[in-house]
Known about the structure:
Layout: E1 3-8, E2 12-18, E3 25-32, H1 33-37, H2 41-50, E4 54-59, H3 71-85, E5 89-93, H4 97-107, H5 112-115, H6 119-139
Parallel strand pairs: 1-4, 4-5
Antiparallel strand pairs: 1-2, 2-3
Helix pairs in contact: 4-6
Amino acid sequence: MRVLALDIGEKRTGVAVSDPGMRVATPVCVLPSQEVTQCSRTFRDVLEDWDPGLLLCGLPRTLSGEEGPQAKRIRQAAAEISRASGIECAFCDERLSSREAKQSLHDMGYDERKMRGKVDMVAASLFLQSWLDARAAASD
């Protein structure tokens, strides 16, 4: 089963996908958030291309582990996406994933301008990989 990760922002949503064996996360694309929440053609194309069995949405939490102020908005958006797509939705902690993504891109030589449009999908792949790793460790 493939898992499609969504880093849902106010303007953009980063998309990443796992391999069918649920071992490796790969960044896919960044779409306007409105296209994702409305399940528009571009997002439906992503769903058709990857055929995920689960949508994993990053849930913002504070450093103390509480749900952050954006969590309610993310939960509502995820419910809409799940309902429109017919794919079950789960959540995982996305704390610091965007910061980590920016650092990773910076280390690869990207400047702020070139990073734009990439950070969200890299962040989605980072929290998806953490989720996949945790599942694998729990099953060992």
